[in-house]
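Suppose you are handed a protein chain with no further information: no name, no annotation, nothing but its sequence. What can you learn? This example shows the usual starting point.
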Amino acid sequence: MMRRLVIGVDGSPAANRAVEVGLELAVGSGADVVFMHFSPLAESLFREDPENGPSQQRIAEADPVLKQAAETARARGVRAELDLEAERGKGNIAAALAGVAEGKDADFIVVGTRGHGEILSAVLGSVSHELLMISRLPVVVVHAGVGGE
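A reasonable first move is to predict its three-dimensional structure. Written in structure tokens, the prediction is:
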């Protein structure tokens, strides 16, 4: 039985599909979700209350990507936590996703992929590919075109 899963979000079509797939899995298993978004908003929000960090409500008010994910989860009856992180390089995003998922005792991680192909991904890098390489937890990678798009 799943207890928790971490879903990486960034507002892209691929991440939006990852939210849909992750929430389907959460509904089917009764799991909670943690939505993670890497954004420049994190620095200013954490400056507002450096000791405690921003509340879940403050994060949702400030970050439209996490707000939309939370509303989608609420509509499906899934309990969701919002995790806003400072922007980093692609390899660091993968490491942060893996670290947070392990720290929150998640059962697995769900992320989207844009499906650039081998050559473009080699040049641009890929968070999903890096995550597959480093995560100790299972990773579900969802392509933006999967399931009726």
